């Protein structure tokens, strides 16, 4: 076989062995490949390496070393920090993602400017990588994840679907048409994503659709976990649990099928109890229910409250959220019912985690509270509908625009999942 003229002359002049020429060509080709690889758009330290050797215990030693080198994960609390500029965001638009509900589609309804999209979370003393959809889906291969709770939890799941849309869209595999209970599957990765609507987490019956405050009156059975999700989740690998906001509504509290009190129910001869009384009882019931599931071997993430930001009045009395940028951490503080809810979540999480550890269960705290407390600019406000539309929540300062600050929750989630991978690898090596 004769070399091309250039390489022939080069070989003659330099007396270079053919093997060196082949090596040179190989290096050139390998140098070009990354330009076309999908991971080229993401930081190199996020890429999962599958080429490393597997030990006799089935442990990927290269990946393990890569994970344990991140020493700051042991010493840095990623949930404490500030918002810093990120000119690369957002990573999808309201035109590229079908999962955005109308009341979170702020750009469609005329929200001016995109500055609120140009931020990322920077923990104090370390860094939190931007969400890598390729790595996430690879880690979720042959696994399943369920979001359980209220509409803010659904908001989080929709954000995740939008972020993953850069790689793949899921197909709907739901068993029925009820939009409150949905299942999707990422076929390439055999990854199932599910949503279970349960805003109180416990069994509830609406006794009056109007109620004292025109938001309904609910009978809450504080000692009965909601069977709509408890009977469905034993085979999931990951649960993301959230609740709180709905407990501000007028409710009658039941235990052992007996009324024990209520919250602003307006009914005669019934003791008025605090909002947090009902919430703490319900959350304790919820976490005990998970600990009692014999076949559940997954990880439960308890996602803490994302505070609302109504200013100038309550949600139904002219309150709104019109700030244009994030707070600094020294410019605001958690207080009121949000502080009570947060303390309850942390306390009940600790109790459940201690009990669960003895039973082989795993609980993790996905602490979104400080990060979202600092983002009064991230809500739809009046940009979740057309002007003068007849909607219940005219100024929405509870949910989050998509795209928007809630996309950062996936940064946190992936970080936590990597820590779970690290723990599993450590356990395997110890074996």
From TrEMBL:
What domain of life? Eukaryota
Trichome birefringence-like N-terminal domain span: 75-127
Q: Which residues form the Trichome birefringence-like C-terminal domain?
A: 128-416
Keywords in alphabetical order: Membrane, Signal-anchor, Transmembrane, Transmembrane helix
Compartments, as annotated in UniProt: Membrane
What broad class describes the main subcellular location of this protein? membrane
Family in the record: Belongs to the PC-esterase family. TBL subfamily.
Q: Give the protein's recorded name.
A: Protein trichome birefringence-like 19
Q: How does it sit in the membrane?
A: Single-pass membrane protein
PANTHER family for the chain: PROTEIN TRICHOME BIREFRINGENCE-LIKE 19, PROTEIN TRICHOME BIREFRINGENCE-LIKE 9-RELATED
Note the Pfam families from the entry: PC-Esterase (PF13839), PMR5N (PF14416)
- Transmembrane regions listed in the UniProt entry: 20-39
Traced from the root, the source organism's taxonomic lineage reads:
Eukaryota, Viridiplantae, Streptophyta, Embryophyta, Tracheophyta
